[in-house]
Amino acid sequence: MTAKTRTKPLTVGFVALGCPKNIVDSERMLALIAQAGFVITTDPDNADIVVINTCGFIAPAQAEAMEVIRHAISQKTKAKIKKIIVAGCLPQRLGAKLLKLQGKIDALVGLEYRDNIAQIIETTWSADAPLKFVGPAPRIVYDDRTRLRITPTHWTYLRINEGCNRKCSFCTIPAIRGKTRSKSPRLILAEAKELIASGAVELNIIGQDITSYGRDLGIKDALPHLLLKLAKIPRLKWLRLLYLFPSGITDRLIETVARCEKIVNYFDVPLQHVNPQILKSMRRPHSKDRLYRLIEKLRTQIPGCILRTTFIVGFPAETDARFDELLDFVKWAKFDHLGCFTFYPEQGTPAANLPRQIPDHIKTQRLKRLMLTQQKIAFEKNKAKIGTHLTCLIDSIGKSRTATGRFFGQAPEIDSLCIIKNCSAAPGKFIKTKVVATKDYDLVCKKF
C-alpha cells in the first residue's frame, strides 16, 4: 500500500544533526518526505518512523549521533516509535558496522541515496529485516533545489560544491563525501533565486572547500565569477563566504570581495596550525610565512575585514614549543572569531597512526589556554566597538522589545550576536544601531 492510498498517512519525525552541509541535505529530504504525502511531526519521540540525519566527521559528532540513536531506540522499545532510519555521514562512514553497534535500527541511508528517502521510508515500513542503502563515497552532483527550510526565513545556506580533493592527514571528509564535485553556475543561480524568492536576504556560501569551486568544470576564477553573478540577484543583501582553504584565496577573489558591496567582508579560513613541522605532518600545503602574509594581505587590501579561523591542538608531535608558536600567532593575528578542537585520531586517517600522540589531559589544557587567549582578544575587540555604528540584520524579537541580530562580521549560528534594545523591527529587516556596551562575546546595541 503506498503513501497515496494509505487511509492514515505515516507520521515521520526528523532529527537534523551536524554541519551546514548536513542542514541542506536535511532540508532537501524533508521536502521530498512532504511531497510524498507523509505527515512530518514536530514530535520525533512519537512517530511512525523517525529519520536521523547524522554527522560522522569527528568523535564528538559521532558521540552526539549515537546518543540520539540510542534515545530513538529507547522510544521504539516503549512502542512510541515504530521504525528508525539513520541517514547521512555516520552510515556512510560505518556502514553495516552501525547495525551491529545499534541493533534496532531499521534502515541505513548513505549520502548517495539522499533523494530516495521517500521510497526508502515506504520500503522500510513494510520490511521485516534491517535495510542498508549505502554505497561507496558519492560521486553525484546534488541538486538542492526545493527544500523545506529549517533555518529562519531570512537567511540560509547555498552549497556550491561537494566533497574534497585535499589530503589532510587528520580528515575523514574525502572518504565520507568523496572527491570535489561542483554544481554548474546555472544550477546554483536557479537555487539562489529560489531561496531569495522564499524570503532569504542572506546567502551563506558553503562547501567542503569553496575555493576549489569550478576546477573540476575547467572554469578559471570560477568562484569570483559566480559571486558576481549571484550579487546581481534582486533582494539579495548579503553574500557570505564560509570554508575558504588558505592556499585557494587568490588575488582575484580578494579583489572581488573588496569591490562587491553585497559580499560581506568576512573570511572564514580554517588554518589548523602554524608550526611548519605540524603543517607538514597535517599535509597542509601552505607555509607559516604564507599564513602570515595572507593575514596581512587581507587586512591591508580590505581594511576592517572580519577574520574567522579554526585550529587543532594536540596534534601528534605538538611539543610545548610548537604549541607556544601557535599561541604567538593567535596573539599577533588577533582573529575576530576563533574555533578550536583537540585532535582526534580518527580511524582510517594517516594521522591516527602517527607517533608521539599527545595525552588527552594535555590536549585539554592547550585547548583551554588557546581559548582564553582568544577570549581576551575578542573582548578587547568588542570594547573597541563601543560608540561605533553598525547595520544589523534582525534574527529574532524577544520580550520587552529586545532583539537579537548580527552585523556583517557575525555569521549565523557560529559567531556572537548583537543584542538590540528597544527594537520592534521584524526578523529579516536591517536597522542601523549604535554599540553601547558589551556582554561577554556579544555586543549590546540600541537603534540609531
Structure description:
This protein is of the alpha/beta class. The chain folds into 3 domains: 11-133, Methylthiotransferase, N-terminal domain (Rossmann fold); 155-384, tm_1862 like domain (pyruvate-formate lyase- activating enzyme, Alpha-Beta Horseshoe); 389-447, OB fold (Dihydrolipoamide Acetyltransferase, E2P) (Beta Barrel), CATH 2.40.50.140. The chain contains 13 helices and 19 strands. The strands form 4 sheets. The chain has a 6-stranded parallel β-sheet, sandwiched between helices. Strand 13 (306-313), helix 12 and strand 14 (337-342) form a beta-alpha-beta unit. Helix 8 runs parallel beside helix 9 (251-259) and helix 12 runs parallel beside helix 13. The radius of gyration is 23 Å and the shape is globular. The N and C termini lie far apart (60 Å).
What brief labels describe this structure?
single chain, 448 residues, alpha/beta, OB fold (Dihydrolipoamide Acetyltransferase, E2P), 3 domains, six-stranded parallel beta sheet, 34% helix
How are the SSEs ordered, and which strands pair?
Elements: E1 11-16, H1 20-35, E2 39-41, E3 47-54, H2 59-77, E4 81-88, H3 89-94, H4 96-101, E5 107-109, H5 117-126, E6 131-133, E7 155-159, E8 161-162, H6 173-177, E9 181-182, H7 185-197, E10 202-206, H8 222-230, E11 238-241, H9 251-259, E12 263-268, H10 276-282, H11 288-301, E13 306-313, H12 320-333, E14 337-342, H13 360-384, E15 389-397, E16 403-406, E17 418-421, E18 430-439, E19 442-447
Parallel strand pairs: 1-2, 1-3, 3-4, 4-5, 5-6, 7-10, 10-11, 11-12, 12-13, 13-14, 17-19
Antiparallel strand pairs: 8-9, 15-16, 15-18, 16-17, 18-19
Helix pairs in contact: 8-9, 12-13
